[in-house]
Specification:
single chain; 87 residues; alpha/beta; Rossmann fold; 3-stranded parallel sheet; 24% helix; 17% strand
Length: 87
C-alpha cells in the first residue's frame, strides 16, 4: 500500500495562534516543529498499518518565502519521502 500525505499547518495539534503558522513570526519555529511531529506520527501510523511507501508533501502557504516549505526536512521520519512542491 502506498500513502501520499498532503499536509497543511492549520488544524495541527498544539497550533493555536496564527503566529505559529506565519513565516517570519516569533512563534513560527514552534509551529514548524509541531507540524513536523504530527506528520511523523502519520508516517508511523501508515507504516504500522502496512504502508510500503509514504510520500509527504507540504501544502502550507506561510508567506514571506516560507510557502510550501514549513516542514523541517531533517526532522522528518526517515521512512518517508519528502516531495517539495513548487508554487
Amino acid at each position: 500500500m502506498r500513502v501520499h500525505v498532503i499536509s497543511d499547518m492549520e488544524g495541527v495539534a498544539g497550533i493555536v495562534k496564527w503566529q505559529q503558522t506565519s513565516g517570519g513570526e516569533a512563534l513560527y519555529e514552534e509551529g514548524r516543529k509541531l507540524y513536523t511531529e504530527e506528520i511523523n506520527a502519520a508516517v508511523r501510523g501508515a507504516r504500522a498499518a502496512g504502508a510500503t511507501e509514504v510520500v509527504v508533501m507540504d501544502c502550507h502557504g506561510a508567506g514571506q518565502g516560507w510557502t510550501f516549505n514549513s516542514l523541517i526536512p531533517e526532522d522528518l521520519h526517515p521512512d518517508c519521502e519528502y516531495v517539495v512542491q513548487d508554487e
